[in-house]
Amino acid sequence: MSLDATNELGAQPRRNVSELQQSGKIKPVPFRGGGFVHSRHRFIAPILFVVLVILWEIGSQTGFISNIALPAPSEAAGAMSDLFETGMIWNHLSASLYRLVVGWSLGSLIGVFVGLAIALFSLVRAGVSPFISALFPIPKIALLPLFIIWFGIGEGSKVATILFGVFFPTVIATYGGVDNVDRNLIRMGQSFGLSWISIVRKIIIPGALPAILSGFRISASIAIILLVAAEMIGAEFGIGAYILMAGALFATDQLIAGVAMLSVLGLTVGWLISRAEHMLLSWRA
Amino acid sequence: MELILDHVNHSYGDVEVLNDISLSVGSGEIVCIVGPSGCGKSTLLRILGGLEKPDAGAALIAGDPPADSLNPLTYVFQDFALLPWRTVEGNISLVLEDHSVRKDKARAIITDVLARTKLSEFANAWPRQLSGGMKQRVAIARALSVNPAVMLMDEPLSALDSQTRELLMDDLIELWGQVGFSACYITHNLAEAVRLGHRIVMLSRRPGKIREIVDIDIPLNERINHPAETAAIQRRLWEAMRDEARAADRELSDVA
């Protein structure tokens, strides 16, 4: 009977592993997986930073690094504390932050609106997007003299430089993001009788938000670069003006202090955008 | 209310996809449309729900939809089409907000449809946390929330594994027992068609023409007890379709 036959097969004794191990005829399958996975190392970066600064300080103290080529970190820290003592840091920082915040916010706001218009209306796309492509690669700092004529030597020209620098990447990020929204979700909205404005507000904008936010990350860095460049050309206060003055006097300790301020500014902006992503895109996990 | 397709023809460019299709979906009736891949099933459904205009012929509505129906022709999509940035509850309230159903009334509807689709404890879950089967249940709950006169279901179970498919088919039959919805149900799976369809319309390969219409008299909830009859119908349909399916499989295609 077939049933008995299967029973017999099942009852066959399995090969005894320990027996085989003794005879040496058995070995484990070699492990070939693993690696190529990122694990989090929270403290590596700060430790590495501190170690580098200490090595740099030692190099400067022993004369291995010439003081003319690179000032010691302690000297740069001294220049920084001078800034705090004289209170000049607030003049420089407030001037720079004002330009950065106004220029970036306006540029982003207008950029998102124009990006949405390009994405949603094919007439606007046909008319405007070639101009965007043509104007995006122009270094905005090259237009600063024009901006000075148009918007004055004061804050206007600096804010305008940042605004234009931020505007173009934001437009491109926004309409790229809208183009990538799942068409099926839009069709779903239509099939349930949602109004046009509801589809834009509840489906298209949230769907494009990840792309818009990563565009913000890029535009914020561009804004900082343009801020310094604009301040170097004509400004009394500002981090860029401070760095330019330090460079002109070959006060390299002040120069390093100014660069450190920019670095902290960049890190802060990056952190703020991460917070915004965390809050607005919590659904992504 | 009855949904009718009247001599519909449709082409994409030079490629004719539908040829002289006439059919109707009556009240409380599930009409399954089967056919080989690329026979224009999905196009047919888009025309039925007004998402696409046919080249010739028309989709018609006979009689008025029930007064409390917010969206008489409502789709259930193969890929669920849930908004990933809204919770289960939020996805259902999305389609109510635009019909000015708010607050307590919306809450009552959401609670009701979640209970019907056995999702009550998942109201605050994100779509990414749900399995495919649960996502499709959410999509079905969303469709029920607008009280549709006809549900237009585009391969609703095709993205699911076979076990989940079985479970959802049982749920759909139970739901039909409770609500008695009407549906036009597109599938390439004959087993689904035989389990869920009061009537099965078989299309030929492109250009899609109606090849055969089969009415099945066995009540939906008793079909599981008549395996021989349903298997015979399924077999007969497959015999009729096999050559078409084989030919369709070997066809070069430029349209989705």
TrEMBL record, chain A:
Pfam families, A to Z: BPD_transp_1
Record-linked PROSITE patterns: ABC_TM1
Membrane topology of the entry: Multi-pass membrane protein
Keyword Membrane in annotation: yes
The organism's place on the tree of life at top rank: Bacteria
Primary site of residence: membrane
TM helices/strands, residue ranges: 43-65, 101-124, 131-153, 159-178, 222-243, 255-273
Assigned protein family: Belongs to the binding-protein-dependent transport system permease family.
PANTHER family, per the entry: ALIPHATIC SULFONATES TRANSPORT PERMEASE PROTEIN SSUC-RELATED, ALKANE SULFONATE ABC TRANSPORTER-RELATED, MEMBRANE SUBUNIT
Name the record gives this protein: ABC transporter permease subunit
Organism: Hoeflea alexandrii
Biological classification of the source: Bacteria, Pseudomonadati, Pseudomonadota, Alphaproteobacteria, Hyphomicrobiales
TrEMBL record, chain B:
Highest taxon of the lineage: Bacteria
Record Gene3D superfamilies: P-loop containing nucleotide triphosphate hydrolases
Keywords: ATP-binding, Nucleotide-binding, Transport
Residue ranges constituting the ABC transporter domain according to the UniProt record: 3-232
TM stretches of this protein: none
GO molecular function, one term: ATP binding
Family stated for the protein in its record: Belongs to the ABC transporter superfamily.
PANTHER family registered for this protein in UniProt: ABC TRANSPORTER ATP-BINDING PROTEIN (PTHR42788:SF20), TAURINE IMPORT ATP-BINDING PROTEIN-RELATED (PTHR42788)
Protein name: ATP-binding cassette domain-containing protein
UniProt organism field: Hoeflea alexandrii
Higher taxonomy: Bacteria, Pseudomonadati, Pseudomonadota, Alphaproteobacteria, Hyphomicrobiales
